[in-house]
Each structure stands twice: as C-alpha cells, then as structure tokens.
Amino acid sequence: MEDPIGHVLKKTELADGLVLEKTSSPLGVLLIVFESRPDALVQIASLAIRSGNGLLLKGGKEARRSNAILHKVITEAIPESVGGKLIGLVTSREEIPDLLKLDDVIDLVIPRGSNKLVSQIKNSTKIPVLGHADGICHLYVDKSANMNMAKRIVLDAKLDYPAACNAMETLLVHKDLVHTILFNDLIVDLRSEGVTLYGGPRASALLNIPEVHSFHLEYSSLACTIELVDDVRAAIDHIHEHGSAHTDCIIAEDQEVVDLFLGQVDSAAVFHNASTRFCDGARFGLGAEVGISTSRIHARGPVGVEGLLTTRWILRGSGQVVNGDK
C-alpha cells in the first residue's frame, strides 16, 4: 500500500508560478472507546499508525489483560523514528469523562460498542464523534426475486453472526409473495434455525406471530422482525422511517426496481442480491476498520485508512500578491 500521508490529490496552477496542491493529512489524535473484543485494538492501532494519527485506546474491562499485552507488543514493534508513545492505553473507566473534555487535544472520538455507549459519548463531549449507535439492517425481498437466492441470502444475513452490526434485523417482503410455497419455506427455515419471528401489523396477523412494539429494533440475536409491503417504494419509505442508515439490501431481478432502491435508499451501504454481512472493512478491501460510520459528514460506511485522513492545501509561490485582484 502506498504511503497515504502527503499524497497529492489535486494540483492546480492558479497563476504563473503559483501552484496549489491539495494533499492528504492525518486527522490528529484519535480516542477510541471499544467494548469487549481485543481484536479491535489491533485493527485500530494498525490503521492509526498507517494514517499517521496519534491514538488513545480504552478497551472493555473484560479484555483488560489481553489489551495490555497487545498494546505492549505493538508499541515495542513500532520503529523509534515513529515512537511507541504514538499509542496510549487508558485502563480506567473513570478517565473517560476527563478525556472527553479535551477538545483542544483530541480531534476525533470513535466509540465501538452498544447503543448505550455510543449515545453516552455523543451526549457528553464537544469532540466530533464518528460511528453508529444502531445497526438496524433491512433486507427487502421483491416479487421479482429469485426465491432460492433470497432464502440463501436471508439465512446468511441473520445467522452468520447475529450479534454483528451488519446482521439483518428486519425482513421486508412484497405482499404478492405471502401465499407462495417458497416464502413459506423461508419462514420454516428461519424457525428451524432457531430464529424467533416478530411481525409488523400486517405480518403478525397473517403469519400468526407476536406483533412488535417498535420497528426500530436491533435484536443482535436470533430474532428478527418481518413486515409486508406493497412495493419497492413502500419498502424504501419503511427503511427511511425505521432504519439506522447502516446497511440495507434488495433481492430482486427487475432492474428498474433495483435501480430505484439503490438510488433512493440513503444508507451508508446499499446492496443488491448480497448478504448485509459483506459490510465490513476487511471484506471491502480496506484491510481493517476502526468501525462503521452512518454519519453523512466525513467518512461513511466501513472506515479504513482513508477515513482517518483529512486534507491540507499547500501553496507554492515566488512572491505573488493579491493586490486587489489586479
């Protein structure tokens, strides 16, 4: 991978001998607060080093000793020209509120964990926060779908890793499919795999399943909501009203319907005929990720090295002045 720092993105000669360059630059100092999984420390540290950012890491208490050893291994391996102090490890939970006040020192906070953690951090700091609170991913099965393909994708999206933020939480189904054998097979397969089914007002009555109190649910377990919709436009409206702008997918063969869905669904990642589980930094070819951002400002989707860079303008002249634009 070529060095991402100081990369010339655009070069313009504004006047004779006056050259402007737009270059890539590190963001500064990152504070990453993550829960449980120590593999997050390794991914985040590698991306921060590659993008030239300083890093403060706060992991969950469940992996305190693992985090300490991994931090030691990484900082000892960093060349002296870079310096092991590039990466700091915060061990006490009590230090977090104090760190969140340091908006003059820390440039970006990235929380990785529960909805509660992300919301708490967003509500208690002036520092910009990158990430997502919810991963309410939808999968819409259109009436033009290949139902054998749909079954394979739906089962993967729900069963492959139910606790992941890119797992399917809501299954939207075109109303014309309800009485088909293949749709019935899909419901049977979900149940046989241990998935607890809940329904919206239409689906609960028809499928005789408990009705959900809210569509804005991230189960993170072997459970999902099913609802029937009239068409692709109704599916798009449902996603915009109840989704979290993370990852949403359509299974369809009608190209007009597909194009409408891909063009209109305003999520960080929008898929056609593929499992939502593909929304991942490693699978996107980014090597790793510091997390997935549903923000519309700065980075969006899985955040790799590029998402940890900003830009600087470099102007090289030879005595030019503005002089009233003469």
TrEMBL record:
Would you say which domain of life the source belongs to?
Eukaryota
Give the keywords, sorted. Answer: Amino-acid biosynthesis, ATP-binding, Kinase, Multifunctional enzyme, NADP, Nucleotide-binding, Oxidoreductase, Proline biosynthesis, Transferase
Annotated TM spans: none
Which pathway is this protein engaged in? Amino-acid biosynthesis; L-proline biosynthesis; L-glutamate 5-semialdehyde from L-glutamate: step 1/2; Amino-acid biosynthesis; L-proline biosynthesis; L-glutamate 5-semialdehyde from L-glutamate: step 2/2
Q: According to its UniProt record, which reaction does this protein catalyse? A: L-glutamate 5-semialdehyde + phosphate + NADP(+) = L-glutamyl 5-phosphate + NADPH + H(+); L-glutamate + ATP = L-glutamyl 5-phosphate + ADP
Against SUPFAM superfamilies, the record matches this protein to:
ALDH-like
**Can you supply a Gene Ontology BP term from the record?**
L-proline biosynthetic process
Family assignment from sequence similarity:
In the N-terminal section; belongs to the glutamate 5-kinase family. In the C-terminal section; belongs to the gamma-glutamyl phosphate reductase family.
MF term (GO), any: ATP binding
Identify the species of origin.
Rosa damascena
Q: What is this protein called?
A: Delta-1-pyrroline-5-carboxylate synthase
